[in-house]
Write a structure and sequence with these properties.
The structure holds 2 protein chains of 2 kinds. By secondary structure, chain A is α+β, with helices and mostly antiparallel strands. Chain A contains 7 helices and 4 strands; from the N terminus they run βαβαββααααα. Chain A has 2 domains: 77 residues, Glutaredoxin; 106 residues, Up-down Bundle (Glutathione S-transferase Yfyf (Class Pi), Chain A, domain 2), CATH 1.20.1050. Chain A is 50% helix and 8% strand. Chain A has a 4-stranded mixed sheet, with helices on one face. Chain B is α+β, with helices and mostly antiparallel strands. Chain B folds into 2 domains: 76 residues, N-terminal domain of TfIIb, CATH 2.20.25.680; 201 residues, Naphthalene 1,2-dioxygenase Alpha Subunit, Chain A, domain 1. The longest helix of chain B has 20 residues. Chain B is globular. The chains are: A alpha+beta, B alpha+beta. At the A-B interface, α4 of A face β7 and α4 of B. Chain A: It holds the Pfam family GST_N_3. Chain A: This is Glutathione S-transferase. Chain A: Keywords: Transferase.
Chain lengths: 215, 300
């Protein structure tokens, strides 16, 4: 049984809950009082992850940290369809890795802005917001051109991959950091597509998709 | 846009919360913003606390002995929080249940929200959104009706009281085992604070107490301090805090998308429905008090 060390308001924890729900993986959670308790910096947690960061999973004794790494592990081990992390497709794997790194960039900008505004973290708010807008602009263009070619997802496949899951949460939560998605219509359409994936679940601050529009 | 600092005497003379003592390391300076003023605060771990207008010589993170400070602001330790005022404060409202020894008293979190304090109070008072925003926790379709309830403005206590509120909740608290009709009583004893009493699944003769204390950073930003004073002898602190943070995290985008951010007090500005009775009383009460900060006053 997988144990997820989890904080409800963390987008990086949410992406694992999201993938596990989509893949139908059973798991239990150990809540970590990230805020205001700073339990991720406590002795017991630092023994689990010396970086003092969430999330961490323990899969029958196999301990892994880092949201993106855990997505790779979970999809590789538990996705019977083999589509979320297609191990036999070098081009797709390369693209997925590219977007997983991009997701880390979203965390260090959009998530940082949210931590600043909501939990009073000491970041230079203008710098992190500007960084998020730069990434959102790049992503919006990528998605817009993709739509022109009939591509709905981040990577060149006709189905979503863990890249979409990795990038979704802190884009969806960006307004909590004062980063509007008003100017990114292709991002907004892509978010709506992610919300319609079978097995999609919400977290606090993320709402389900509205009723489908008539075709 | 540069907003002018607070000139509203009603708001200046109130007690305002700054932080939960449990979240403050003793003997260390913290700083925050209250009514657009930089304010620093500290406590000594022995029950003494201080607040003062920030100055460069004593930055956040510095060690401080609070009995050495001069020119401090009024200060009060109540309900687990440090309170101060930029004016001449009166009494802080009572919460008698806080003295009951068997209750769990926690700061669920202090969260920054991009909204005016009065908009946040109104959302706290609103039961109509439960099934849609707090789905399967504080409400669920088809149980969407807000039944008739009573609201009074108590002249004697100078507070709003909403009683006989009742709502079906799938999971009213951390100790709920099944859905139940839950009784609610709301108090608004302070323009920026509200105290909610709801049936306790742990003891049907008593009520859980959940309060929201809003610290106005400016007219359109608050720090929301969420106080819990509940009956639960089953769960760890962090489980109880997580429950409340989950709910507040669901409210946050709703609050931050309110427009206009300040609460309009003109009765014609927004169209209420019957379920908004407590909000109507709240707006009227703020008008009667002459509150201008965080609101759009009615035209006179």
């Amino acid at each position: 049984m997988i144990t997820l060390y989890d904080y409800e308001l963390s987008g990086n924890c949410y992406k694992l809950r999201l993938l596990m729900s989509i893949l139908g993986i059973d798991y239990k959670t150990v809540p970590v009082d990230f805020y205001p308790g700073r339990e991720h910096k406590s002795d017991w947690f630092l023994r689990l992850n010396p970086l003092g960061q969430l999330p961490v999973i323990d899969d029958d004794g196999f301990v892994l940290r880092d949201a993106q790494a855990i997505l790779v592990y979970l999809a590789s081990k538990y996705d019977a369809s083999g589509t979320w992390y297609p191990r036999d497709n070098p081009e797709l794997l390369g693209q997925i890795s590219q977007w997983l790194a991009f997701a880390d960039g979203i965390t260090s900008t959009s998530s940082a802005a949210r931590l600043h505004d909501g939990m009073f973290y000491d970041f230079d708010i203008e710098t992190v917001r500007a960084g998020a807008h730069r990434l959102f602009r790049i992503l919006d263009e990528h998605l817009w051109f993709g739509e022109q070619e009939g591509r709905d997802w981040l990577c060149s496949a006709d189905h979503p991959t863990i890249a979409d899951i990795a990038c979704f949460p802190y884009i969806m939560l960006s307004e909590e950091g004062g980063i509007s998605r008003q100017d990114y219509p292709a991002i907004r359409r892509w978010c709506d597509r992610v919300k319609r994936i079978k097995g999609f679940v919400v977290m606090s601050g993320v709402f389900p998709a509205g009723p489908a529009k008539a075709a | 846009m540069q907003q002018s600092r607070c000139t509203d005497p009603v708001i200046l003379n109130l007690w305002h919360p700054l932080a939960a003592l449990v979240d403050m390391q003793p003997g260390v300076v913290f700083d925050t913003v209250l009514l657009e003023e930089r304010v620093s605060y500290a406590h000594d771990g022995q029950g003494e606390a201080a607040a003062w207008r920030s100055f460069a010589g004593l930055p956040a993170g510095a060690a401080v002995e609070i009995d050495q400070l001069v020119e401090t602001l009024p200060v009060k330790v109540a309900y687990g929080y440090l309170w101060t005022s930029l004016g001449t404060p009166g009494e802080l409202f009572p919460i008698p249940e806080f003295a009951e020894a068997d209750r769990r008293k926690l700061n669920a979190a202090t969260l920054g929200v991009n909204v005016s304090a009065p908009r946040a109070i109104e959302n706290f008072l609103d039961m109509g959104h439960f099934p849609y925003v707090h789905t399967d926790i504080l409400g669920a379709e088809p149980h969407t009706e807000v039944k008739e309830y009573d609201v009074e403005i108590s002249v004697e206590r100078d507070e709003i009281l909403a009683t006989r509120c009742r709502f079906y909740q799938p999971k009213a608290s951390t100790v709920s085992t099944e859905g139940a009709d839950v009784d609610y009583v709301y108090r608004v004893p302070h323009p920026y604070c509200s105290v909610l009493y709801k049936s306790s699944p742990a003891d049907e003769s008593r009520l859980d107490v959940i309060a929201i204390f809003l610290q106005p950073i400016d007219q359109e930003h608050v720090r929301a301090h969420m106080m819990l004073c509940v009956l639960d002898d089953e769960n760890e602190d962090k489980i109880i805090k997580r429950f409340q943070q989950t709910i507040f995290g669901q409210d946050k985008p709703i609050l931050e998308n309110q427009f206009p951010k300040r609460l309009p007090l003109d009765p014609r500005a927004e169209t209420p429905i019957r379920a908004d009775k407590s909000a109507i009383a709240y707006r009227r009460w703020l008008s009667q008090k002459g509150v201008t900060y965080g609101v759009i006053p009615a035209a006179t």
